[in-house]
Amino acid sequence: MSMRQGESEADVVPKSKRPSDSAFKQQRLPAWQPVLTARTVLPTFFVIGVLFVPIGVVLLHLSNTANELIIDYTRCTSSDAANAGITCADYLQDNPGKQCNCAINFTLTSDFNGDVYMYYGLTNYYQNHRRYVKSRDDLQLLGQLSQTPSSDCAPFAYDPVTLEPIAPCGAIANSLFNDTLKLAQGGVDIKLLNTGIAWPSDKRVKFRNPEGNLTLALKGFAKPILWQHELYDLDKENPENNGFQNEDLIVWMRTAALPSFRKLYRRLDQTNNNYAKGLKAGEYTLNVEYRYPVVSFDGTKRMIISTTSVLGGKNPFLGIAYIVVGAICITLGLGLLLIHMRCSRSSNMEMINVNPHTQYS
What we know:
Structural class: alpha+beta
Oligomer: single chain
Helix content: 25-40%
Number of strands: 11
Number of helices: 9
Shape: extended
Largest sheet: 5 strands, antiparallel
């Protein structure tokens, strides 16, 4: 230890690492530790069980009030005359980048009353992979176009042929779901809406189009490699639903946490008097323009039609979880109660045997 001028070794006091003598640092603060006894633990188990089971039953009932129909169309048979007899999955494997058409007839056994939503579902699709989640340029999605996209977009930052920057860049945008799903009844298409499907906060805050004419703003930029349409031409019927504010794109860019997921695809247009109250029970047809390959990674594709309840879409997990936890607590409570009664009786008998002259009033 260095000494200042005029100081002797006796004057220098070595620094101590001992904490100060305070109640906090010396751990002398008042503390409370629960004493777990049968009188406190058993009522807790029974109270949790009695509360959780009926709550779970109510949640399960509310979830079951929502109707849902799931159709797996991964290996639907092609309805094209040139491809008759083969599945669209096999056709796409032999002809990547092409389109196959298929039709699936199905029956709604009950009325789907209220708001009706169509989802697409994918399985074995890991959108939560770290490099996949990072593969985007948030400034670009805000309409701030640059000739040098974020390095996170590599290797989907530049077109390999023209060397132009890609907009939107990255693996997420490049793998945009591009199947077209349509509903028909009696040979007549049912109108479905492709707006109002994205989170309003996403559309308002995270995704913006560049100012001015969108086509001119995107001049000098290439579309993603796997896309078949330009960014400014994603929705031919609604010009406001193009560019970075296309709602199909916004929904897809919100990556899923699990490998099996569903995303909102369309809403039923209920301004038509025939479907004002929803979809009635009957025969329907799902027409698919099949473009999205999933068989190569052992994935599947589904179309889901669903209504909603007070809790949202049909999802029995929460109700089942409450019932299971409640049942476990009641079972543990009964088991511990029996053990407690048996051990208490054994203890009393031992005390009697030790002192046989004990008298009880």
